[in-house]
From TrEMBL:
Domain Fibronectin type III-like span(s) in chain numbering: 739-809
Classification lineage: Bacteria, Bacillati, Actinomycetota, Actinomycetes, Kitasatosporales
Protein name: Exo-alpha-(1->6)-L-arabinopyranosidase
Family: Belongs to the glycosyl hydrolase 3 family.
Gene3D superfamilies: 2.60.120.380, Galactose-binding domain-like, Glycoside hydrolase family 3 C-terminal domain, Glycoside hydrolase, family 3, N-terminal domain, Immunoglobulins
Length: 950
């Protein structure tokens, strides 16, 4: 070192521990620089040579929104593989591509927002495609595998830094920023927290993103659970990134705080470290932080805590050690190995639900393939841009030969005739350079480059018109497509053009509705909400002030059934490919309304059945459906399988691959079996396979194959804090195939409501014909625990537990019973500790709300009416004489004990100053011994605590 060479600052010294380096860098930052780091797009600090950094790169099943990338099956499809090792390899491939893409485009981020670990509690949730399973054990196993792949296996440096979404109890899109999930302690600890906890504890998670919704009346972005639970599960500095726009929602839509300065301070102090708000413009967020500091709502220590957690992630990503970071040179991109992995994942995700022997299809079979998704490779909101693609039709052509396959999409072909007798006409698409630029590597139009184009000519009218393909996707939501495959779309200038390869976008501009009007139909564009009109310069949506919408006559040129009948006439087997478009009727911001297939697709399915007794239904969808499988020869389901979806499905149909996917969630027989979408009490309302008592259409864990398997030799040993279970599985079929042995448990004599069965472990194994494998499960005793509200912690109840091994939650092949010592129950010491209102055993007509903005729970009757709470085994001691009720609002609390005793006591609560202004009221209540206590709440009061004294 020469005299003129400045010394290397400690934060640049790779030999120092990260903690010391972070301390050094943090001390060098000015307050303004630290404030600037709190926005998603942190600017560079040039004087220190610190680069700009942004949190957030979508990578749910491939690198998204950054151009061409390998597209793997949707997350729910990865969950259906029940194969953590496969999913780990997928995560590794995604992170390799993120590094490779970043090497040539620094907009690609390494702080990846994936995976989504919200449990698939309700199949009508619009974002069902983003989660792995309704079961916390399976979800955490798959999520842990994905995060390990994303992280990489270097002991110091991370290839990418995964952030789990969305904390917490988030399963509805309807009103998602204003609805509150009422989650009692047992559901919180036994269900919603588990998937997050087990994944975080596995050690490959860099952070968490709070969800838009509220939990127990409090927005997730100011949740005390971030501090009380999440940060206690790991020694790593977890980075908490807000969801987009959520910090502003605290004031603008949720009205939880009066000012943005208060909201920003509360979120930062609760643990939010990076604010994703106002896009790339950081000025609004940084001004709010400065305002909070000036008002004394924040301290510089609060800033330091958040910036420290950000820097911890940046150091782990190797940003400050380019010569030591093993991933700094980038990664592999679109390699043969990644393409093979995409196909393997798509194959393993296929679930065979039913088969009467028609599958696999023999070579030489004459196949009719029909349906709206037969020649589609659909993408969702979090997909990357396809480099390669295969549709079911293309896969069947490749596998069986085009001369053996007939195709009919099964759409209605129509003309839309105006009141003047003219028809909508789609001008020919120009073959110009702009059009060629919108085509990808294989000639397909890139929707990102095509959608919203205004250089294409708008629709006009003439005497002949253009025949349009019309599809009703359900609830009257339509798409219209020109003969060249382009969907009618509306750009910002309001004109209708054939200018989209697929429906898509945050606001979908390719959907319409035909509404009866004045003897004809209005064509209403759903993206703008306006009807279509015919203007002199082209067809466009009406201006807001316009009262001149066009009234159309729908002229049917050909019904879908006629095309299906032609295609099926000479077929040996008909394959109907049905399902959803991931951007329509079920997606982010939009929940589904029914489990049923859309009526249009039911028509196509009925026409196929009429054409052939050997009909196979292949459902390609983001979520379950309620179907009537009786007349069908076989039923398969797969999530949208990414770039290799068609090849994978064809190989399964042909028997080149024996299907072994398993359902990651229950398929219900009809809508009547579903709970309310906003009812998050999986225990009380008996939701998911854990508690549901009705017979499902297909159970959790179900899936068939082309081989049979026998189970034998179940053995169980206990000791060292574990239960060890073993059995043998033998392939009794005539082909190599995978099997998924699953271990469940059931408490035989529970004192509280427990799952009717609960997954403890699973394996996916490959066996040749006649081969036998020994399968081992090692389960910690803690897996048998429930959350005991009386003690405020987990407890393994002593007694018998049934162990069940088999091919699904209902296909039990082996069973035995093990008796666990556990910890005996103890009465609630209510005389000593009192009762937290939210720690009830049972309830009716109530919901949990926030006791204060920062922490605590209270209970209130739904809608300010009447509700009841039950607390079992309360120990009042020998001589309780008084009761105190701590509550806010106004109303009354009525108390009594079961089995005789004092008459019910009513404690009035006079109106307080606000929902957080709690008052303690005392009354006489003479009771002794151990009794069940019941409370009836009347009126809009918020009960926080009940106490007892002599």
């Amino acid at each position: 070192m020469t005299a003129s060479t400045p010394p290397t600052p400690p934060f640049r010294d790779p030999d120092l521990p990260f903690a010391k380096r972070i301390d050094d860098l943090l001390a060098r930052l000015t307050r303004d620089e630290k404030i600037s780091f709190l926005h998603q797009f942190a600017p560079a600090v040039e004087r220190l040579g610190v680069a700009a950094f942004r949190t957030g790169q979508e990578a749910l099943h491939g690198v998204a929104w950054m151009g061409p990338a390998t597209v793997f099956p949707q997350a729910v499809g990865l969950g259906a593989t029940w194969n953590p090792e496969l999913v780990r390899r997928v995560g590794a491939a995604v992170s390799e591509e993120a590094r490779a893409m970043r090497a040539r485009d620094d907009r690609v981020g390494l702080n990846v927002w994936a995976p989504t670990v919200n449990l698939l509690r309700h199949p009508l949730w619009g974002r069902n495609e983003e989660g792995y399973s309704e079961d916390p054990k399976l979800t955490s196993a798959i999520a842990t595998a994905y995060t390990r792949g994303l992280r990489g296996d270097h002991p110091v440096y991370w290839r990418t830094a995964p952030v789990l979404k969305h904390w917490l109890a988030h399963n509805n899109e309807t009103g998602r920023d204003v609805t509150s999930s009422s989650v009692r302690p047992r559901v919180l600890h036994e269900y919603d927290l588990r998937a997050f906890r087990e994944t975080v504890e596995a050690g490959a998670v860099a952070g968490v993103m709070p969800a838009y919704n509220l939990v127990n009346g409090r927005p997730n972005h100011v949740s005390p659970y971030l501090r009380e639970h999440l940060r206690t599960w790991t020694d790593e500095e977890l980075l908490i990134c807000s969801d987009a726009g959520a910090p502003s929602n605290l004031v603008d839509t949720e009205h939880y705080f009066d000012t943005h300065e208060e909201a920003t301070a509360a979120a930062l102090r609760a643990g939010v470290d990076s604010f994703t708000d106002h896009g790339t413009d950081a000025s609004t967020v940084t001004a709010r932080v400065r305002g909070a500091l000036e008002r004394g709502l924040l301290t510089e220590a609060d800033l330091d805590a958040a910036v420290r957690r950000q820097l911890s992630v940046r150091f782990r990503l190797g940003e400050f050690d380019p010569d030591h970071d093993p991933y700094a040179r980038g990664g592999e991109f679109d390699t043969p190995a990644h393409r093979d992995l995409a196909r393997e994942a798509a194959e393993q995700a296929v679930v065979l639900l039913r088969n009467d022997g028609v599958l696999p299809l023999a070579d030489g079979t004459r196949i009719a393939v029909v349906g709206l998704l037969a020649d589609e490779c659909k993408l969702d909101w979090y997909s990357g841009t396809l480099i390669h693609r295969s549709t079911p039709l293309e896969g069947l052509y490749e596998r069986f030969g085009a001369d053996r396959v007939e195709f009919a999409e099964g759409v209605d072909r129509v003309l839309l005739r105006t009141s003047a007798g003219r028809c909508l006409r789609v001008p020919a698409a120009p073959g110009d350079a702009a059009d060629e630029a919108a085509r990808g590597a294989e000639g397909a139009l890139d929707p990102a480059l095509l959608a919203g184009r205004t250089d294409l000519p708008p629709l006009t009218t003439d005497a002949v018109g253009t025949e349009l393909a019309l599809v009703d996707w359900g609830d009257g939501v339509l798409t219209l497509r020109a003969p060249d495959g382009r969907y009618l779309s509306v750009a910002e200038d309001g004109f209708l053009r054939a200018s989209a390869e697929q429906p898509g976008g945050w606001v979908v501009q390719e959907t319409f509705r035909l509404e009866p009007h004045d003897g004809g139909r209005l064509l209403r564009h759903l993206g703008t909400g306006r009807p279509v009109r015919v203007a002199a310069d082209g067809v466009r949506v009406a201006d807001e002030a316009s009262d001149d919408p066009e009234v159309f006559e729908v002229v049917v040129v050909e019904r879908a059934e006629a095309a299906v009948a032609r295609a099926t006439a000479g077929a040996d087997v008909v394959v109907v490919v049905a399902g959803n478009d991931p951007h329509i009727n079920g997606r982010e911001t939009e929940d589904r309304t029914t489990l049923r297939l859309p009526a249009h697709q039911e028509r196509v399915l009925a026409a196929a059945r009429a054409g052939s007794a050997r009909t196979v239904l292949a459902l390609v969808s983001s979520y379950p459906y309620a179907i009537e499988p009786g007349p069908l020869s076989a039923v398969l389901w797969t999530a949208h399988g990414g770039q290799a979806a068609g090849t994978a499905l064809a190989r399964v149909l042909a028997g080149d691959v024996s299907p072994a996917g398993r359902l990651p969630q229950t398929w219900y027989a009809d809508d009547a079996g579903l709970p309310d979408l906003l009812d998050y009490d999986v225990i009380g309302s008996r939701q998911t396979y854990l508690y549901a008592e009705g017979r499902p259409l297909y159970p959790f864990g179900h899936g068939l194959g082309y081989a049979s398997f026998s189970y034998a030799g179940l053995s169980v040993r206990t000791g060292d804090g574990t239960v060890k279970v073993a059995c043998t599985v033998t392939n009794t079929g005539d082909r190599t195939a995978d099997e998924v042995p699953q271990l469940y448990t059931r408490a035989v004599e529970p004192s509280v409501a427990r799952p009717r069965r609960e997954l403890l472990g699973h394996h996916r194994i490959t066996l040749a014909p006649g081969a036998t494998a020994e399968v081992f499960f090692e389960v910690p005793l803690s897996a048998f625990a429930f959350w005991d509200v009386a003690r405020g912690g987990p407890r393994v109840e002593p007694g018998p537990y049934e162990l069940l091994v088999g091919g699904s939650s209902e296909d039990v092949r082996l069973r035995t019973t093990v008796t666990l010592d556990g910890e005996p129950a103890a009465p609630r010491p209510v005389r000593r500790d009192g009762l937290a209102a939210a720690d009830f055993d049972e309830q009716s007509g109530t919901e949990i709300v926030d006791r204060a903005r920062t922490a605590g729970d209270a209970v209130t009757p739904v809608g300010g009416g009447t509700g009841e709470l039950l607390f079992r085994d309360c120990d009042f001691g020998p001589d309780t004489r008084r009761v105190t009720v701590t509550a806010a609002g106004s109303g009354a609390v009525e108390l009594w004990v079961d089995g005789g005793g004092p008459a019910p006591v009513t404690v009035p609560v006079e109106a307080t100053a606000g929902p957080y202004d709690h008052r303690t009221v005392e009354a006489s209540f003479a009771v002794g011994g151990v009794r069940d206590l019941r409370l009836r709440l009347r009126g809009p009061l918020r009960l926080a605590q009940v106490g007892f004294s002599g």
